[in-house]
Records
---
Amino acid sequence: MKTWQCVVCGFIYDEAAGLPEEGIAPGTPWAAIPEDWACPDCGVAKADFDMIEV
Amino acid sequence: MNTSPIIIIGSGMAAYTLAREFRKLDADTALSIITADAGDAYSKPMLSTAYTQGKSAAQLVNMPADKMREQLKAAILTHTRVMAIDVAAKQIQLADETLAYSKLVLALGADTVKPKLEGDAADAVYSVNDLEDYACFRAAAEGKQRVTIFGGGLIGCEFANDLVNAGYSVDIVHPHPYPLERLVPEAAGMAIKNSLAQLGVRWHSGFATAVNHVAGELVVTLNDGATINTDVALSAIGLRSRIQLANVAGINTQHGIVVDRQLHTNAPDVYALGDCAEVEGHVLPYVLPLMAQARALAATLAGTATAVAYPAMPVVVKTPACPTAVATANQPDGGTWQVNCTEEGVCALYQDAEGKLLGFALTGKETAQRQTLAKLLPPILG
């Protein structure tokens, strides 16, 4: 399981934890998150900025 | 046929996000970007966590100006100031040339508010408003131990936390008994204050009135006469929209450049977005509103008139010592705070007389609720 960080705001997506409040189950890999998903803290789209692995 | 380009003034996040969104809809229309900066794309919010992320100012560049030219198929004039706008002739005036525009977008940003200071080191006080400022501040702090921050707002608290994480000894001067007082109730403000204090941040009540060089260090004098010995002083006392260029051109301004829901000013084909724009009374210098504006304006510029809508937009305060999320109420006078404090953090809900949620302030583990609670909030601009 990896951890990813939004390059715009620093939001951390932890694959192990998922984002249950957004309907993303724990264990969901970054690659499986839909392209129209946007960072919950800053709103940038996955397709625009992507995240960097940390 | 009008062959003048669309011109965007500015190269911050608002300008570049708009340009990127516009190119998704229109690959061909000529686009020019005029910027007083170097034109490198970077994320301004990341300036306040760079030490903790282990990044230098140069490493914060996501994409250099040359790559942006290529990606956006845009002419980008860097280190270039716009002296004046002629809204009747649809031209902008640079130092040595005049450029015609078909549409003009003002993405000018905001200026940092300068503190009024006496003393022979008043000019040595840093403020950080862009990547170049940040590089200067980092160079000044290199090899030093102590930093004194003026202002315990969002940026002041974030920088304090980041500097402590980098090993600096930090003092903060703030006039209010707790930080972020315009956004959060006392319990949440005290949680932030105490968490930073536990890391070693020293809080001083008041404001700086003078900064002097004394024997190789700086001495900051406060309004009550107290002094702080320090190495570097950083001011973070607020932002003010850049409105002067618009104002002298006859474009309406108040706190920001006044625009309607389509981000249109009162001048034909002149638009504004980002920290310089005031949309129906709202100047919101945060990332989420800027993204909403950029998407709406990109569509408008591409030929589909689109009004911006603001959902409730929580702001995350990047203080790892005390994670905090805030959603300011749409009508701040209309309600009261219901505050619950536990071991896990502060959960403060701002409600109207009927118990309807208008805003919130969450700290610690309570911040996990921010997305869920945000869905219950009324939109800022529906």
---
Amino acid sequence: MEENQKRLEQNKHEKPMSFISMVVITGLVGGIVWSSLALLAYFFNFTEVRPNLILEPWALGDWKKGWIGTVFSILAIGVLSIGASLLYYAVLRRFNNMWVGMAYGIGLFLLVFYVLNPIFPGIESFWKLSRNTLITTACIYLLYGVFIGYSISFEEAERNVREEEAKESPVS
Amino acid sequence: MSKTQNKLPIPESLSEVESYMKNRIGLEDSFDLGVRKLKILKKNVHFYYVNGLCDTSPIVQIVKELVGINNSEKLSLQLQSIVENRIVHQSVEQVKTMDEVVDQVLSGLIVVLVEGEGIGLVVDVRSYPGRQPQEPDTEKVVRGSRDGFVENIIVNTALTRRRIRDERLRFEIMKVGERSKTDIALGYIKDVANPDLIKVIKKELEAIEIDGLAMADKTVEEFLVKQGYNPFPLVRYTERADVAATHLLEGHVLIYVDTSPSVIITPTTYFHHLQHAEEYRQSPGVGTLVRWIRFLGVAASLILLPLWYLFVQNPDLLPEALSFIGPNDKSNIPVLLQIFMADIGIEFLRLAAIHTPTPLSTAMGLIAAVLIGQIAIDVGLFVPEVILYVALAAIGTYATPSYELSMANKIGRLFLLITTAAFHVPGFVIGMTAWILLLAGIRSLNTPYLWPFLPFAPKACMQILVRRAVPGSTIRPSIVHARNRQRQPAKNG
């Protein structure tokens, strides 16, 4: 009975998160949310590129083209995205505005679609992609960049404010 | 207080006071101003009042008591203190300048003046015309309290105080408006609310320079957040006392404006406008479901029409499974024009419904539903799909809990429609992106508008997606910068 009681939501106590776990969660959620949106865009033929792209360089079974492959690739993008957000955290978190996040997103887009293009046989070379595909994917990367960048920079700014407050009034 | 010295002190002679009142506030010109003259212990005693704003029965009591002095007291030099002692009311105050006398009389209090003293006794016998608290029309719930705010600031603060009997609940009152002298109260809990926010709001309110606040809270909002032509609501209004109390406990600062039944909640984000008291009146599971369905409705009100129009333009975008979508009949008018006409038609109806008296609105509904909808299709003006999607978007608009937000989303929808029509897929995608970025860029009282989604705050975002159990949510939302983050005392465990 006691054990049961402890597991109920009502009896949990929330603690404020540490910064690094917030960064990791933001990366994971950002990757999953925006790649799901990309999947939706692929479904409606806005873009020729689907999230399954991420599994292409690896020789896996046929399942990687089915729905299991889609789920796995969204999760894989989520995990990769943790790396992207940690990188932002390490390098760019001091800049508290949205433009840096946008630039970061566009940078990632160029990295994947221009620089790393050769390792994905499934997508055409950068200049042969259709206009719709380029614009849609660029927009999704841009929003993803803002999501990661703005969140981390905002949290950094908030934490600084809180620390200063704690210095001024050392109550509790 | 140096200002008081410059103002005219109350003259000792009552006839001088009377002529001042005649010149300054039009005693005898205005019928609602009055003076009652009594003779007590051979001295003149005058009462100034505004009829309609004060309650007659305590005044009659006071007059009875004062006239009784003639029978029971001997002649005395201490008339002023005898009179003060005999005023049978709990709220009596002394004033020394004519400005205060005028202000108080026009607020509905009575002022008692004794010959040769130069002191006014202000008695609070105000009784403003107003209604009883009733359920607000815009925020109904199935269960829960039915007492909404009214047009009287005193009743409104009392309704809040009844829910939070905390010693640290503060209502700071100030008068704004050169002519209207409207009361504005700033409500917050002292050890919870962010002191910087309180300071900012107070400064903004004190800086308001206007002759009158006839439109009350809306005018105050425009001075406070300076939104210009940005259609998105930057503060939230509520007419429910329980919603107001909940936000106070979360650390928000509330602004009560006299003569308005809505209270301003600051700071506010986009997602505050998507919540409704009803969710907190159901179990957490049901509340969550209600909330998700509501999100769907809001999303439909925003993107359904542009998305459908995109598929009308480019049917090749549709996946195999959805290829049945699209206008099946040939239409005589371009679909875009049809959408705009139907959407504007619904807007006509909505505007008409606001000021149509109830007996006529039934007839209006009939005309709208039967005549316009069906017959517009029969004569070949609209294709049925247009009616369907425009109606869905309209219902989505009505499912938005905040009226202000639903209007702003409507503008967003029209904007997306135009970009889609002009640039097809890139128009839709870039339009959506621009819309999200614009929203993310708005800051209302230093709060990012799309918080907790953008910037992302994991726990607060969970609170938005899932209506959490109240005993589990022990931390106040970080965006209000509460001084005390724990809602419930943390037990060891």
